[in-house]
Amino acid sequence: FDVRRCPNFRGVRCSAAHGEKPDIENFAKAPGLYADAKFREGFAVLARLGLTFDAWVYAHQLGDVRDLALAFPNATIVLDHAGTPARLFGGEANGDDKHGAPFVDASLEAAWKTSMAEIASKCPNVFVKVGGFALPSVGAGFEQRDAPPNSEEVAAFFGPAYAWTVKTFGARRCMLESNFPVDKVGVSYGVLWNAHKRFTKHAGFGEEEREALFSGTAKRVYKIDG
Questions:
Q1: Could you tell me the pTM of the whole model?
Q2: Half-sphere exposure of 128 (CA within 13 A, CB side)
Q3: How far apart are CA 99 and CA 141, in angstroms?
Q4: How far is CA 116 from the centre of its chain?
Q5: Secondary structure (DSSP) of 89-128
Q6: 78 pairs with which residues across the strands?
Q7: In this structure, how many other beta carbons lie within 10 angstroms of the beta carbon of residue 219?
């Protein structure tokens, strides 16, 4: 395979997401894929060719991404779905306001933030796709509703975590994502992107930061012209 003959080929994605609990869906046969010797043999070729690598793990596996990034400091790694903190949300909001602010598992949030902050500080070769929290495994519960959420509700649920991620890594290392068609189980495409617009404005990100989040970082990381 000669990548020079494929000018639009930018890289590969390989999921290592393996649930810590039985009720979390597995997308890899076993945990520890990114530490596997055969995997790293192939990864070394990818890095040598200057191709990007999209990594997807659950939050409890973020140490695997950190170790991979440290072992291959010249490789460009894109962490998908902001590290997917499974079961971060407790489903529907508490109290009378059914669609108000979500319940957040404080211990899970703290562990996720600790791991993400470590990657941000130690691994400058890691970039982040910010999104994907409509996955049922994250626990928002949108897929269980009789009526889908609007963009205000989606921004209220995911905005604080997304904004924290951007502030931790910096806008030039983050790109917003839709994770479609998977996300459509709980939210429509238009609502999701309007929610991204809402949370970035609410968080006070400037024009240059929003340009990086909505297009600039992705263009730079994936070497997209125009």
A1: 0.92
A2: 29
A3: 11
A4: 11
A5: B-SSPSSS-TTSSPPB-HHHHHHHHHHHHHHHHH-TTEEE
A6: 54, 127
A7: 13
